[in-house]
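Hi all, posting the design record for the shared folder.

TITLE: backbone redesign
STEP: 1 of 1
STRUCTURE INPUT:
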């Protein structure tokens, strides 16, 4: 659903309420789980929370942090915790997947025949098309392309640039599946080369399996180009003009970004605002922790809106980082009874305690990522994790009674991490509402849709704006 400038006051009010809650619980959002034992975080939870949660089964914790409307809680919880949980459920942008319909208006436009899916009824062609595409990516491509087609017909704009196009799967779907004219911009040259190779396979598949001549479909254009986050957009506009062989005055195009990292999403929004040639934009963000702050960049990734800038609304790195995690998937783990998957948080926290006790200057050092399995011992984990730090842990301390006591409290680490995850959707909501206000301040209509299944795609909300 789109909102216009008349709704700005409501968006501001909602954002303000979200921010006040995040500010109140910043001590929790800003706490790294790896520091759990170093800073004794369990003791910093409100006493009534500790008493209520310490003996809870983990499936109960899963119900507590779940924001699904159908989830009910029968346990008696502190009023402050219940109030927090209800506030989050009420204020967050709902994460439940919404259905995208290509309505009748799309089918009545001048290019209603663009969406010709006959070629996808051919199994061989489909198999070639989805080559090297994982389930998550396939899910995202199918729905993102559907949304792009809907906006293309709505705005009568059939040229699209796909920023961060990789090996071109989304570009290919928009082009071969929906008949749109697409230019993919990709920073890594070898990915652009792979995209062109896959295009050749598509051309071959069309001839072989679909009895189609390739000229009926316009294959995407792949350009090796890094979109700089401090770009004013002129280089992008010039590249698009050359790719489509259309002069700037006659050019109209939409922007699509499937998980543009960090500041790139903010850069694309600035391009949409600045250039009349850009008729619509679809972006699904990721890597919020990489958003630059006003002190480090003239074109900060957050905040974007004048409202948030004037209010001096800040979000810490830790809070933006936890907002990128998968709440729904973690709830499933809490409900799975395979708790060995969750003990890795405690392993990392105990390891941090051992390191800091012996080498305080190595606090927050980057350790190796260790593939966790059910029978992985803490001792084995430690020596794999620190192999590149140039230190050697005392085996007696690793296997001491004190260390064993920490490890027995692994469920406390899980509970603490779960509480952080429960608040995280409000952080993402703040970032989304800031972007909405940024667009509304230029008097363009925009909206957020939870387009993907959050179980498959944790960052499942698409920000859309049109002119």
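Okay, here is what came back for every position:
SEQUENCE:
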């Amino acid at each position: 659903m789109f909102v216009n400038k008349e709704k700005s006051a409501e968006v501001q009010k909602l954002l303000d309420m979200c921010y006040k809650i995040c500010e109140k619980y910043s001590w929790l959002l800003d706490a790294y789980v790896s520091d759990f034992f170093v800073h004794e975080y369990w003791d910093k939870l409100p006493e009534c929370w500790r008493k209520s949660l310490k003996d809870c089964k983990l499936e109960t914790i899963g119900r507590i942090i779940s924001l699904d409307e159908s989830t009910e809680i029968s346990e008696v919880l502190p009023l402050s915790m219940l109030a927090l949980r209800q506030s989050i459920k009420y204020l967050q942008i709902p994460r439940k997947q919404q259905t995208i319909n290509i309505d009748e208006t799309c089918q009545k436009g001048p290019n209603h025949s663009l969406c010709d899916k006959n070629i996808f009824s051919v199994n061989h062609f489909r198999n070639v098309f989805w080559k090297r595409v994982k389930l998550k990516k396939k899910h995202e491509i199918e729905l993102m392309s559907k949304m792009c087609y809907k906006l293309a017909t709505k705005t009568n704009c059939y040229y699209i640039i796909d920023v961060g196009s990789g090996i071109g799967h989304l570009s290919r779907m928009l082009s071969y599946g929906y008949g749109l004219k697409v230019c993919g911009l990709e920073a890594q040259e070898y990915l652009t080369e792979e995209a062109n190779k896959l295009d050749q396979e598509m051309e071959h598949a069309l001839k072989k399996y679909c009895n189609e001549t390739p000229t009926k479909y316009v294959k995407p254009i792949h350009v090796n180009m890094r979109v700089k986050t401090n770009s004013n957009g002129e280089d992008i506009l010039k590249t698009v003009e050359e790719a489509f062989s259309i002069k700037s005055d006659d050019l109209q195009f939409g922007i699509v970004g499937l998980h543009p990292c960090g500041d790139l999403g903010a850069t694309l929004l600035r391009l949409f605002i600045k250039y009349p040639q850009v008729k619509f934009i679809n972006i699904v963000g990721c890597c919020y922790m990489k958003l630059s702050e006003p002190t480090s960049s003239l074109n900060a990734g957050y905040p974007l809106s004048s409202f948030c800038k004037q209010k001096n609304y800040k979000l810490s790195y830790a809070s933006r980082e936890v907002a990128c995690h998968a709440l729904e998937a973690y709830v499933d783990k809490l409900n799975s009874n395979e708790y060995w998957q969750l003990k890795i948080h405690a392993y990392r926290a105990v390891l941090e305690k051992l390191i800091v006790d012996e080498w305080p200057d190595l606090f927050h050092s980057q350790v190796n990522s260790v593939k966790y399995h059910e029978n992985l011992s803490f001792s084995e984990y430690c020596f794999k994790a620190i192999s590149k730090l140039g230190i050697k842990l005392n085996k007696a301390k690793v296997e001491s009674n004190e260390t064993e006591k920490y490890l027995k409290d692994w469920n406390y680490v899980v509970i603490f991490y779960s509480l952080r995850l429960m608040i995280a959707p409000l952080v993402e909501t703040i970032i989304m509402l800031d972007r909405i206000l940024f667009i509304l301040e230029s008097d363009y209509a925009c909206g957020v849709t939870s387009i993907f299944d959050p179980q498959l795609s944790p960052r499942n909300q698409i920000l859309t704006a049109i002119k």
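COMMENT: Residues 104-115 have pLDDT under 50 and may be disordered.
Let me know if anyone wants the other runs.
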